[in-house]
Amino acid sequence: MKYSYIFFTIVFLLHIANVLLPSDSLQYVLGILAFLMLVLSIGYASNLFKILGTVFSAAGLIFFFTTDLNISDVVPMLANNLSLLTLLAVLPWMNSVVTAGRFDKLLQNLLRGNVKNLGSLYQRSTAAMMSLTAFLNVSSATIAHDVLTDNLKPIEKKAANKFIMMTTLRGYSLALPWSPLEVLLAMSIFITGVSYGELLPWMILITIFMYLVDSMWGRYYFGKISYPQKSESEVKRKSNHIRAKLIQLIIALISFLALVILSGNLFNMEFIFIVTILVVPFAALWAFFIKRWKSFCTIGWNKWRNSVNNMHNFIVLFVTMAFFTGCLNESPALLMIQEPVLLVADYPILILIMIQLLFMILSMFGVHPVATMGIVGGISPMLIDILSPMSLAVILVTAGVSTVPVGTYGLVVTIISMSLRQSPYLITFYNLLYSIVFGAVGIFIAYWLI
């Protein structure tokens, strides 16, 4: 739908107004508008998200008939996840300033660095992917694949493909636990109510640990394969430019993180809402200071319009998930679902392992970790009583992120699979041990925080 972005944007602006000036009447109107968004989007969603939406709707309907709710009570529930959709709608503006400032070229230059073997390139590639994924998200995987494919032409094809499968997906996953622009992190905070500032140090600790462990493994595993070096003059010519761009990117990243934490401490507002209202002005100011305002406006408008016009998958997922969660929380069936968890309430480590396995197994069957988080979120009040809010937040983030490299039908795995013409199950196999270690680290930290 060419002009659906206009309707969606009106809904998002009304949602922002409702957060600033809460109104029961406006919440009801937003519920009706959310339903209309669902009706408009269902025909354009992919088969996977249609199936997920149908399952959530069917389950929610079953729970509805076990409650004392009526239709008028359900309508406002449909708008409960508009915060997440509004956040997704503004993210292209941050992506646009990175593109306008040509920071995406930084990834290309970093991956063409002067290294002696693939082991050293592995470390550099993972770090470069992690740095830019914080702003570019999926786009960084596409750029890294293109650059690495070109750079690794002298390398034996099987080794080159394996290298790309690992560095792109693992580097990508390392940016997700701490980036305020990541929807999995936003959902975890939304479900548990923890402070981003309090959660951030643990996420950074997990990221650093996983990067060091994976880098050492990559240096050992690929270190025996030599890599053609660039000429010394070429390296010197580009080094100053790369250093300046990298410093700009680091300053922007630290500034945004600090602004999010400071705003969260000053204003009594949800983390998702704070990030949502900060993205556009921050990106605009960044573009102004680096003198890329015109490019930012042009690129940003096109990216944003195209992105909002194609939000159908997430609209179907989040609106049906809101219906499912709302009905579940009011249903006696919640007690039945809670029973297996209560049986192991005295052994929280088993609950943490169960959550991790649920994310991992469902991801291999194509279930998006956001959908799995919605399922777990339905029993989050009980889990918080057993685990503590911070412990639950940590396991939700790490369990969700750890599935990214092994999500057989996930977006990034699909992109790499199609580009390399390799089976997605092969990519899952190559990254399975990494994901298991990532999940285990998350379980350990979450258990420590109980």
Automatic annotation (TrEMBL):
It comes from the Bacteria. Keywords: Membrane, Transmembrane, Transmembrane helix. This is Citrate transporter-like domain-containing protein. The chain crosses the membrane at residues 6-21, 28-45, 51-70, 82-103, 169-193, 199-222, 246-265, 271-290, 311-337, 349-371, 392-416, 428-449. It comes from Gracilibacillus oryzae. The keyword Transmembrane helix applies. The keyword Transmembrane applies.
